Amino acid sequence: MSIVLQNVSYTYRNDGNSVTQALSDINLEIHKGEFLAIVGHTGSGKSTLIQLLNGLERATQGKVFFQGKDIYSKDFSIKELRSKVGMVFQYPENQLFEATVIKDVEFGPRNMGQDTLQMELNSFQALKDVGIGEELLDASVLALSGGQKRRVAIAGVLAMQPEFLVLDEPMAGLDPVGRREIFALLQKLHKERGITIVFVSHSMEDAAEYADRVVVMNQGKIVLDGPPRKIFCYEKELERIGLGVPQATRLVHRLAEQGAQIEKDCLTVEESAAAILNWLQG
Known about the structure:
About 40% of the residues lie in helices and about 25% in strands. The protein has about 280 residues and is an alpha/beta fold.
């Protein structure tokens, strides 16, 4: 099972009818079971790309396939696609609008046509998965903390039973503790429920620590695609497009350039610290 973008381009009209090319000839396959990071600076096309994955936007050129079926064909159900490919936007707590937590989480599955019993079971399970207890089911969404609101928003998508969960800058506005908690949640969903995770980020540290595949975008094109250890070998190329590599990786690279016999493909602070220690003890 996969989502496939084939020769996809996307243009939109600005004020004054000028045209901007947001995506150009994108070829991408997202496989079931991946934990994929899409990175790039502002305006690189990341957010536009993910909105094509569940039909929120339609490609100007090219095709998008889900489970081998063209999502633009007349007999394809976009509604079903959106139940399988769940989307969590930046600052997802702004999506909350119902009076209580449980009503907000039930909104999506109800609109997707789930029967009442299935909707209730899926909603309770989704809230449990994100760490929201029964004592908050009837609480006003306005009374929740920022972190709780974000969890409830994610639960609302999970209640629709998606196979792919796509998140646009899921850590935006969170403090370090909140960031770790949300990524721990995503790792749990990926491992225990087998949900494919696709997240957009500016943070190369997040991509290095959590993703098993990184897609790098620049000016509407995919310029690098592969495992993090491979991607972060291209430090100079990444710097040219305004990204760079994680700070811990950069430190190891600088030491190696100065002649240190050190392992260079470190991704995290822990790996870099171990590599430096091994070199010093060497």
